[in-house]
Design a protein that fits this description.
Helix content is 52%, strand content 18%. The chain is of the alpha+beta class. The chain is elongated, with a radius of gyration of 47 Å.
Length: 444
């Protein structure tokens, strides 16, 4: 909900309550004033009636034209005086007419009588109705005008904020155009613009520094690693190496390859997070994943894996082609790597969803942590590596530092993390479930 909408709703609720209370209070005051006037006239009629009784010591009726007076003899006169509303039937149109009645007791010619002086409230009620309708009309008009004015005023006052928000939303870190926010008349908006201006400049500087670092790291680190791998491969092919030397060269080669994969994976994650892949195209992920499986046909046959595809709909998505390749390659490699011999891989595509399932043992870590960096579904099985002591007569080097066990280094634990980062950056929800011996990863 927008701030202006929320403000208008609060103002509307508060104003409605205030206007209702004001209307009720105004109605009560008007009614009180009119009733006070009617009762004052009834008291005047009472004094006139008392003066008439003292002068004539009798009551013949019909003397007072404005009000109705009813005199009824009673046994005892009570020292009370009471005002109340009553209804009297009109003898002409046979309708009940509202009256205000004053009742008191007096003596006429020595006999106690109850005297009721009544005054019609028709004109008073009409006056109250006219005043009430006029009041409601004017208050409603005032309320609508105030609400309209407040909405227009708030809209104009908050317009600089929305302008700033629009410019910040369009600001692109990868662009060389800096964020420019003009000065405003309102002090608070000026302070906000200054803070955002300085923040954008700092973020842009940090982004450029990080971009330069990733580009430099990608080039400067990969070059010596490639050189190390090339030299080690040359040494491994030498015929003069002992078994111990071959072992240590193999360890160096594995560590170098792992470092290269780590470097590439971490740099790729940094580039994805920084949105350094600008070319976005419409890619059908279902077609692309089936092509990936066809490319790995030899690997699938070697592991005796069966592939089932079930596509009822295509799964197009806007994202860079290179990242689409990385995303699906990681998913396919993950399904093959963590499968069992003779297992199966299932691809399902429906409207708005693409799922890849594979058989395999249950994960040993919580499923919600599989997409974290350097987390693996199952711990690699350790085994004791051959040491130089196991080879009699062979030359040994570095015997005291030889590792007792190690895990295979064919996985660095970044595959699913890269998949998750690509999904988060380009509007894909990645979910994982394990049931009935099958791992299932879905893109939505």
């Amino acid at each position: 909900m927008k701030l202006l909408t929320k403000t208008n709703r609060v103002y509307l609720s508060f104003s409605t309550g205030i206007y209702l209370l004001t209307a009720l209070a105004f109605y009560a005051i008007i009614k009180l004033v009119i009733y006070d006037e009617v009762e004052s006239r009834l008291l005047v009629e009472k004094r006139d009636f008392e003066a008439y009784i003292q002068a004539h010591n009798s009551w013949q009726g019909g003397y007072f034209v404005e009000n109705k007076i009813a005199v009824v003899p009673v046994k005892h006169a009570l020292p009370t005086e009471d005002f109340k509303d009553t209804l009297i039937l009109n003898r002409y149109d046979h309708e009940l007419v509202p009256f205000r009645e004053l009742t008191y007791y007096t003596r006429i010619n020595g006999q106690a009588h109850r005297v009721s002086i009544r005054k019609s409230l028709i004109q008073s009620y009409r006056l109250i109705e006219v005043i009430t309708v006029s009041m409601i009309a004017f208050l409603s008009l005032l309320f609508l005008c105030s609400f309209w004015f407040q909405s227009r005023l708030s809209g104009q006052l908050w317009q600089p904020f929305y302008n700033t928000l629009a410019k910040v939303r369009k600001f692109d870190l990868s662009s060389s155009t800096p964020l420019h926010l003009p000065a405003e008349e309102i002090t608070e908006f000026n302070e906000l613009n200054d803070v955002l201006q300085k923040m954008s400049e700092k973020i842009h500087q940090d982004y450029q520094s990080l971009k330069e670092f990733t580009e430099n790291a990608s080039h400067e680190i990969q070059t010596p690693l490639a050189l190390i791998n090339a030299r080690v491969e040359q040494l491994i092919q030498s015929d003069t190496l002992t078994e111990s030397q071959s072992y240590w060269l193999d360890e160096i080669y594995r560590a170098s390859r792992r470092m290269s994969k780590l470097n590439q994976g971490l740099l790729l994650l940094a580039k994805i997070e920084n949105r350094q892949f600008a070319d976005v195209d419409l890619v059908d992920l279902y077609v692309l994943i089936t092509e990936k499986l066809c490319d790995m046909d030899e690997v699938l046959q070697h592991k005796q894996l069966r592939v089932f595809t079930k596509g009822t709909a295509t799964f197009p998505r806007m994202l860079p082609v290179v990242l689409a390749e990385v995303l699906l390659s990681n998913l396919v490699s993950n399904a093959i790597k963590h499968n069992v011999p003779g297992g199966l891989i299932r691809i399902e595509s429906t409207t708005g969803q693409l799922c890849i399932s594979n058989t395999g043992p249950a994960p040993t870590i919580p499923p919600d942590r599989l997409f974290e960096r350097f987390k693996k579904g199952r711990d690699a099985t350790p085994y004791v590596s051959p040491t130089p002591h196991d080879n009699e007569g062979m030359e040994t080097i570095g015997e005291e530092n030889a590792p007792k066990q190690y895990a295979p280094m064919n996985s660095v634990g970044l595959g699913l993390a890269i998949v998750k980062q690509i999904g988060d950056s380009y509007g894909l929800t990645i979910t994982y479930t394990f049931a009935d011996g099958e791992h299932r990863i879905c893109l939505r």
